[in-house]
Write a structure and sequence with these properties.
By secondary structure, the chain is mainly β. 0% of the residues lie in helices and 48% in strands. It contains no helices and eleven strands.
C-alpha cells in the first residue's frame, strides 16, 4: 500500500521558518505528482505546492517566494521549506500524491490526488 507520512510541523512566530517532510513508501511508478495541501478548520483543503518526477513545481499565489517544495528522490522524501511565515499560514498541512505528471492548475483539483497523509499541524503566532 502507498503511504505518506508527514513530519516537521509545530509552532513558530511570525516571520519564522519551518520545514515539513513527507516520507513516501509503497509507490513504484516512475511518474507522479506529489505536493502539499493545507486545511484551516472546516474549510476545504487548498493546494499549496506540487512537484513531479521531472522536478517541475508550481505554487499557490499566496506562498510564492516564501515556500519551496523539493524532493529527495533517492530517499522518497518530499520537503516543504516555509519561510517568512504569517498567521494566515496556520493550518493542518497534508502531503498528497497521484500517479501522473502534474498539470497546469493541478493545485485546484485535490480530488485527483489518490494518496493522502494524516497531516501535520503548523501554527504561526
Amino acid at each position: 500500500d502507498v503511504q505518506l507520512v508527514e513530519s516537521g510541523g509545530g509552532s513558530v512566530q511570525t516571520g519564522g521558518s519551518l520545514r515539513l517532510s513527507c516520507s513516501l513508501s509503497g509507490y513504484t511508478a516512475s511518474t507522479y505528482c506529489i505536493g502539499w495541501f493545507r486545511q484551516i478548520g472546516d474549510k476545504g483543503r487548498e493546494g499549496v505546492a506540487v512537484i513531479d518526477a521531472q522536478g517541475i513545481s508550481s505554487y499557490a499565489n499566496d506562498v510564492k517566494g516564501r515556500f519551496t517544495v523539493s524532493q529527495d528522490s533517492a530517499k522518497n522524501i518530499l520537503y516543504l521549506q516555509m519561510n517568512s511565515l504569517k498567521p494566515e499560514d496556520t493550518a493542518m498541512y497534508y502531503c498528497a500524491a497521484f500517479g501522473g505528471d502534474c498539470y497546469v492548475g493541478v493545485l485546484s483539483y485535490r480530488a485527483d490526488f489518490s494518496y493522502w497523509g494524516q497531516g501535520t499541524q503548523v501554527t504561526v503566532s
